[in-house]
TrEMBL record:
Organism of origin: Desulfamplus magnetovallimortis
Pfam families (UniProt xref): Amidohydro_1 (PF01979)
Protein's name according to its UniProt entry: Putative metallo-dependent hydrolase
Highest taxon, organism lineage: Bacteria
Gene3D superfamilies: Metal-dependent hydrolases
């Protein structure tokens, strides 16, 4: 696992200047030899660096931060600064199941084994591995997540970390395949690095808010997931976590597991509460053949599985045209619904998703592992005027090899060669931020947004070597680059960790 430079400025009293060979403001906009000026955790200015700028710059390239009377300046080098990534769908609480469940069991068999293995792990191991997974996600450039928790483990971890309580994985360090990273942060504005043997390859700067005693700076929506028939009493009354302010850009919401596991009555109750509190609602949708068979015919392997577990589905309005149609029929599909997977959806389903302005979230590696097929991303992206803007997620470590969004983007690039690199990066940044309701503060590096970004040392890329492609003019900043130049840089970004 590699570590990427990641700035999460929050309450620093000075201005901070961050300069690099390229600033990728968005998947469609780039500044060569650019800088970002940050104050109080917000981007207040960005543009092209000139040697005679009014602010002094550390050009030594050693990764140190220098301070003067006006603020601090950091020159990262010849690489590229990009927006921090968004993992729109994952399950941290299943991280202890990494490599425990074979992928070739079929979906029904995989679910059965997941339940067995999760029970064997016990809460302590589930918590410890969830903590580790959260820290690994942050260390590989993810800043925002859409996390799903059935057992409530994620909420407990975040609540205890934010309050500084001990336990729940307060690790001094953790191991990866290549390095040991010091994660625990006890001092304000701590600057930490990859271990020294790799220091020449990686420049990592992490600024942390010392008011929050936690290892990770992950923000996002943390969904409490429900399934079955019973409507818990606490779903019918206001939860304390509903009214939590977006401290550290975090909020807690609700999710229904899937239309073939969660009754229509419970799904409507969950959806009613998320609408009331203006929060997104997440649900797995059209993921497996078992689901489609159950929804459209009311029988099959999944029906047998539910009967074994004592779930009465006799009053569910089954024999619908498709899982997507079923969800629409019960009134759950709307603009605040994250429709996760859509693996077994056709053009009619996607037309309905588009009509309701629902948000597709795809997890291609997980789909390939468990089902041997991929979602129709080209069809989603073909909708006029970007009506469908799919976001990218990793799913859990029970169904994929890592929670690294660079791995997910590289997989998409390999298996969908017809999709432009800019569209792939958009799925992992701006689309994901918009899906989770953070489009005004994350997803791009524009003035007014949070200063959360990653530095990637693409030292060997020379933009001037590219002679083909059409020009992409940015009149505001007064620079011009060919569209293919931007696409090539983004492809280098997506595949950097594989090189």
């Amino acid at each position: 696992m590699k570590t990427y430079g990641f700035s999460n400025s929050s309450t620093h009293p000075y201005h901070e200047f961050h300069r690099a060979g390229f600033i990728l403001v968005s998947p469609w906009r780039i500044i060569e030899n650019g800088y970002i000026r940050v104050k109080n955790g917000k981007i207040v200015e960005l543009g092209r660096y000139r040697p005679k700028c009014a602010f002094p710059v550390d050009v030594s390239g050693d990764g140190d931060v220098q301070h003067n009377g006006a603020g601090s300046v950091k020159d990262y080098g010849s690489g590229v600064i990009i927006p921090a990534l968004v993992n729109a769908h994952t399950h941290f609480e299943l991280s202890a199941l990494r490599s425990r469940i074979p992928f070739n069991l079929g979906f029904n068999g995989w679910v059965r084994e997941l339940l067995v293995q999760r029970e064997r792990c016990g809460k302590e191991l589930l918590e410890r591995e969830a903590c580790k997974a959260m820290d690994e996600s942050a260390a590989t450039g993810t800043a925002f997540v859409g996390d799903i928790s059935t057992l409530g483990i994620t909420r407990d971890i975040l609540t205890n970390r934010a309050s500084g309580m001990p336990g729940h994985g307060n690790l001094d360090s953790w191991e990866t395949d290549e390095s040991k990273l010091d994660i625990l942060n006890k001092r304000p504005w701590r600057h930490y690095r990859h271990n020294r043997r790799d220091e020449s390859r990686f420049k990592t700067a992490c600024y942390r808010d010392f008011h929050i005693k936690q290892q990770t700076e992950l923000s996002g929506i943390f969904f409490q997931e429900y399934l079955g028939n019973e409507i818990p009493i606490n779903v019918l009354k206001p939860f304390d976590f509903y009214s939590q302010s977006f401290i550290n850009r975090r909020a807690f919401s609700l999710a229904g597991h899937a239309p073939h596991t969660t009754s229509p009555g419970l799904l409507r109750a969950l959806k009613k509460q998320t609408l009331k509190h203006n929060l997104p609602f997440s649900i797995h949708l059209a993921e497996s053949h078992d689901e489609t068979e159950f929804i459209t015919k009311g029988r099959g392997r999944w029906a047998s599985f539910l009967e074994e577990r004592g779930v009465d589905f006799s009053d569910w309005p089954l024999q619908s045209g498709s899982p997507v149609k079923y969800l629409d029929d019960i009134g759950v599909l709307d603009r605040d619904t994250l429709a996760v997977h859509l693996l077994n959806s056709d053009e009619t389903d996607l037309d309905l998703i588009a009509k309701r302005n629902a948000i597709p979230v795809v997890c291609p590696r997980s789909n390939m592992n468990l089902h041997g097929k991929l979602p129709d991303l080209p069809l989603m992206l073909s909708y006029a005027q970007g009506i469908l803007k799919p976001a990218l997620g990793t799913d859990s470590l029970a169904s994929t090899q890592s929670l690294n969004m660079f791995d997910e983007m590289a997989f998409v690039a390999k298996h969908y060669p017809q999709i432009r690199p800019s569209e792939i990066l958009a799925m992992a940044t701006v689309n994901g931020a918009q899906a989770l309701g953070y489009g005004d503060v994350a997803g791009t590096l524009e003035v007014g947004k949070d200063a959360r970004f990653i530095y990637i040392p693409l030292k060997h890329f020379n933009i001037s070597n590219n002679k083909s492609g059409r020009k992409c003019q940015n009149r505001t900043l007064g620079y011009s680059h060919k569209g293919s130049d931007i696409e090539n840089i983004i492809m280098e970004i997506i595949t950097y960790h594989e090189s």
